[in-house]
Amino acid sequence: MAEIEKGHIGSSFDDFLDEQGIREETTEVAVKRVIAWQLAQVMQEQHITKVEMARRVGTSRAQLNRLLDPTNDSVTLGLLTRAARAVGRNLRLELA
Q1: Ramachandran category for residue 58: left, alpha or beta (phi over 0 → left; psi -120 to 50 → alpha)
Q2: pLDDT of 5 above 70
Q3: Residue ranges of domains in the chain
Q4: What pLDDT is stored for residue 31 in this prediction?
Q5: Chain-wide mean pLDDT for the chain?
Q6: What is the pLDDT of residue 1?
Q7: What pTM, to 2 d.p., does this model score?
Q8: Contact in structure between 55 and 39 (CB atoms under 8 Å)
Q9: pLDDT digits 0-9 by tens, 65-87
Q10: Which of 1-5, 20-24, 44-48 holds the top average pLDDT?
Q11: Which listed site, 44, 65, 84, 90, has its alpha carbon 20 to 30 Å from 78?
Q12: Bigger pLDDT: 72 or 54?
């Protein structure tokens, strides 16, 4: 029987994802969705259009659309870094 610890029953969600063999993929998708959402939020707050953002980043609007698409994982680290700088932010990655 699963051990009950501080109001939790059973294993953690991470354990579940590991058991299903989808933890890495799920984490990658979640990170991309968060970054796309954050960029879209900052663009909205700063009233930056997609055309203007593409100009600032030095890319096409089609590439920017791929960047802002939470389901598209073919975005490079360089593009993410340029996009963050274009809105006055820094991209921070770390190994945990």
Answers
A1: left
A2: no
A3: 28-89
A4: 84
A5: 84
A6: 45
A7: 0.72
A8: no
A9: 999 998 888 888 899 999 999 99
A10: 44-48
A11: 44
A12: 54
Residue carrying structure tokens 């802002």: 68
Distances (CA, A) of 59 to 51, 69, 79, 83: 10, 15, 9, 10
Sign of CA dihedral 27, 33, 37, 40: positive
Distance CA 65, CA 7 (A): 43
**Mutual orientation of helices 13-20 and 23-45 as an angle, nearest 10°?**
120
> Which of 92, 86, 91, 95 is closest to 63 using CA atoms?
86
Token pair recorded at residue 67? 């960047």
